[in-house]
Each structure stands twice: as C-alpha cells, then as structure tokens.
Amino acid sequence: MKKVAILGSTGSIGVNALNVIRELSDKLSVFGLAANSNVSLVAKQAVEFGAKAVSMFEPDAAKDLKSRLNGGAKHLAPGVQGLCDMAAHPDVDVVLTSLVGGVGFAPLLAAIRAGKIVALANKEPMVMAGAQFMREAERWGARIVPVDSEPSAIFQCVQGLNPDPKAAAPLKTIRRVILTASGGAFAKYKGDLSKVTPEQALKHPTWKMGRKITIDCATLMNKGFELIEIMNLFALKREQVEIVIHPQSIFHSGVEFSDGSVLAQLGVPDMKLPIQYGMTFPERAGRVIEPLDLVKAGSLEFRAPDFSRFPCLALAREAAQKGGGMPAVLNAADEVAVEAFLNKRIKFTDIPRVVEMAMAAYRVSGGLPSFQEVVEIDAWARAKAEESCR
Known about the structure:
Layout: E1 2-7, H1 12-23, E2 28-35, H2 39-49, E3 53-56, H3 59-68, E4 74-75, H4 79-87, E5 94-97, H5 105-113, E6 117-120, H6 124-140, E7 143-146, H7 149-158, E8 174-181, H8 198-201, H9 211-219, H10 221-234, E9 241-245, E10 251-257, E11 262-266, H11 272-280, H12 294-297, H13 311-322, H14 326-342, H15 350-361, H16 371-389
Parallel strand pairs: 1-2, 1-5, 2-3, 3-4, 5-6, 6-7, 8-9
Antiparallel strand pairs: 8-10, 10-11
Helix pairs in contact: 2-3, 4-5, 5-6, 6-10, 6-14, 9-14, 10-13, 13-14, 13-15, 14-15, 14-16, 15-16
C-alpha cells in the first residue's frame, strides 16, 4: 500500500488521481491533500479518502477548512510552507504534484530532498531548473516520474534500459525522441489569431485540463516546456527531440534508438493512465481506463508544427539552446502573459511578444544558476513581463 500526497487535489489532475485511487484502493491510499482555495471540495475529498493531513494555500481558506473538518486530518501551514511540509512528510511514499506554475518549485525540491517518488505533472519547475533537480534527485535517492501524457510515454519507453529502478537509465542508445502535440484549440484554425478570445483558446479538442495549461497548448508553449523538461529528464540535446503534431492524441510519444528501432506508447487520450503509472511506479496495476481500439481510432495523422504561426514553440527552442537561466525567464514571462490574456488585458498573439521581450532583456551568464538564483531570475522575469503587459 503506497501512501500518496496530492498537491493540487482540486484540479483536473488531482481529481483524476483520486479517481484512480478509488479504483485501486488495495494498492494506493491518500495521506494528504493540498489545494489553493476550494474548501468545500477538499473537505469532501478528505472525508471520503480519510486524509491524514490537509493544507490550503490561501490563509482564509485554511481557516475555513479547519472549521469544517473537526478532528481527523492534521492541518498543515498555509502557503508554500504547507506544500513543502506535505511533500517531505515521513509517512508519504509518493508525492503527486499537480500544481500550476512556479509555485511548485519549493515543494518539488522538498520532496526530492526527502527521497520521495515524485509523480510530476507540474512541469514548470523542471523547465526552470531541471538539470539541477535531476542532480538533487540522484544525490538524495529520489525518483521523478513524469505524469504529463507525452513525457510519461517517453519515460515508459526507456524503462528496462537499466535494471536498477533507482538509478538514471543509460540513455546513450537514444538517437531521438518523437514528442507529439495535439496542436491545441487552433490546430486547424485559419483565421486571425490576434482576434481570438480566451473562451475560444480554452476549447481544447482532446484533453480537459486547467486554464493555464490549455492556453499553453493553444500557443504550443506547453510543447516547448515539455521539450525542455524531456531534455533535462533524459540528458538529451535539443536536436534529439523532434516535435510532431498528432491531433488524435493516440500515439503519445516514441523513442528511436541507435539501431533504428522505434518504441512508442499508445493509448486512449485519458490522463488517468499516466497518473496511475506515476503513482504505482515501478509496478503496473490493473486497468482503470477503456482499452485502445485501433480500428475504431482509424487513421492517425502526423505533421510538422508551424513555428511561424506559433512562435512560442520557437522561443522555447531558443531558451533550451541558450540554457542557463533563460528557461526560467521563458516560464515566468509566459505565466504573466497567459494570465494577462485570460483577463483580456492583452491579445492572444501578444503572449509570445511578452515572452520574447523578457528573453531579449535577459543576459545569460555562464553555467547553471543555483536554486536561489533561479528564484531571483523568476522574480525579475515576472516584473519585466508585467511591464510589457502594461
């Protein structure tokens, strides 16, 4: 029985994780739940799953939850401290982090330094300082298992290259990674992207996700983030990652090895599968999703992305190439720009412009920045992006 702490239990990933735990109650149990401000849902989740600890990010929400839950769960501190305490708790086996954006930076570091298995859906920290996190994971005996569909597919394809599940796989035999993207809300849109609304951008054709990641899918920035995440997870060069648009989201991603063989992970587009694998790793439990019917799926399409129409992807590639603190600038500026677009302060096509201006203003220094330096770069980039939005 693995005890799971879910950071972000009220979002799409968190709710799906609880659906998986409900189906696999003989293998998984809930130790802790953390969320931003949805007190009523966390209270229901805590009662149903018998959570031993809870934490609300917003202080007022934390007080409200305490008044609703009489006894039972221990109430951890609000804010980032509560997230870190939950992630590092000695009774936790697996930390599922499905937080949004850079707020997951400190909790990820806390989980790694506590030697946990981290089922990681919060890719932004791995964009900001992925190489540093991987180095810490090796030092503290932690394991990062990506939960996003495509990085999870690649992770699954390379399992078995090393008999020791605690060690990093020897990935020198990888020639390239085929990273697929659905294309987002505007994959087939022929109109003027400068006039699209947040409501249009939030209509993803395949996946049901949170608002931030759905906009990132529409701009293809999400795929750029996954490019950087994958480079860090598997110690790959940018040239080894090929991005391919695949609207059906059946071929989740693949790996080509030095002999020309390609291993791919296929499945129905249901996030419960990578979530389940992340929580049960290194084992595979019983199926909680419908089986893949290739005849019903029909034809599968693949095409190259349009970098000129979706410049966020080109900016992510540039950040990956320059390295240093530039990926942290990319992530921070994108968070600010997406929030501004959702609040209708800027246009959809202004998102890459805001990011580009922040990147142009940043001067890359040599070597990898420390964790503290990454936090400072993040704060600087947010301020610079906010200036651009104004």
